[in-house]
Amino acid sequence: MKLNLKIWRQKNSKTKGKLVDYQINNISEDMSFLEMLDVLNSKLIKNNDSPVVFDHDCREGICGSCSLFINGRAHGPDKSITTCQLHMRKFNDGDTIYIEPFRASAFPVIKDLVVDRSAFDRIQHAGGYISVNTSGNTQDANAIPINKNDADTSFDAATCIGCGACVASCKNSSAMLFVGAKVSQFALLPQGKVESGKRVLNMVNQMDSEGFGSCTNTGACEAECPKGISLDNIARMNREFVKASF
Q1: Cα separation of 192 and 237, whole Å?
Q2: CA–CA gap between residue 89 and residue 49 (Å, rounded)
C-alpha cells in the first residue's frame, strides 16, 4: 500500500503545531497502525529527520496509552478496539490518513501525538480506593456474598482502561463516562460502600477542577469507547452524586 499521511507535529505544549505530509510505501495490510508508524519513523531516522513521537506500551489493547485521533475518530475507523489493534486492512491503497492527538484542554500536548492524561490519575487519586483490613487478618474474598448481576456490572465498568477516547469524542471534552465507570466499579460492591459518598463527591469535584466539560448526552463517548463502557454508568454516577450531596 502507498499512503499519504498528514500527521500533527508539535514540539511542546507551548509551541504552535501543524499537520505535516509524509509519503509512505510498501505498507502491508496485515500491519497494525502502530507498526506502520514504526516503518515511517525508521525511514525518518534513516534520513536524519526527527521521528514522530507517539505513545504506546502493551500493544495488546490493555493499557490505552496508544490513543490517536485517526481520520476524525478516536482510535480510528474500526470499532471496540484501541489504536494498536487497528490494522491497515481498514484503509485502501492511496488513502490520505489524518493522524492527530486527542484534543482537550485537560489533555495538553506533550509532543506531537502524545498528550498528558495525568488528569485521569488525579481524578482516581481523589477517591478511587476502598478501605480494607491490611493487619494480616484479612477476610477471604469469598467471605462476602455479592449478587451476580452486581458483580458482572461492576466488572464491566472496571474494564475501562482510561484511554481518553470518551473525552476526545465528546464535543465538550467531557470525562463523565470515565468517572462514571470508576464510580460504578466500587459503588456496586459492598467493599466500596464505606467511602461511597466521599468518593463520588471528590472525584466529580476533581473532574470539574481539571477543566473537563459537561456531558452532552449525545452518546459519542459510548460509541467510540474501545471497551464499550455503557452510558448507564453516567446515570449511576449522577444518582450517587445526588444521594451523597444530601
Answers
A1: 13
A2: 28
pLDDT digits (tens, 9 = 90+) for 98-120: 999 999 999 999 999 999 999 99
Interhelix angle 176-187/232-245, rounded to 10 degrees, is 70
Q: Which domains does the chain have, with CATH numbers?
A: 3-111 (3.10.20.30), 118-245 (1.10.1060.10)
| Contact between 56 and 40 (Cβ < 8 Å) | no
Pairing of strands 3-9, 96-100: parallel
Q: CB-based burial of residue 23 (10 Å sphere; 0-12 exposed, 13-18 middle, 19+ buried)? A: exposed
Q: What is the pTM of this model?
A: 0.93
What is Dmax (Cα atoms) for the chain?
Answer: 64
For residue 145, what are the CA distances in angstroms to 56, 148, 153, 170? Answer: 39, 9, 15, 38
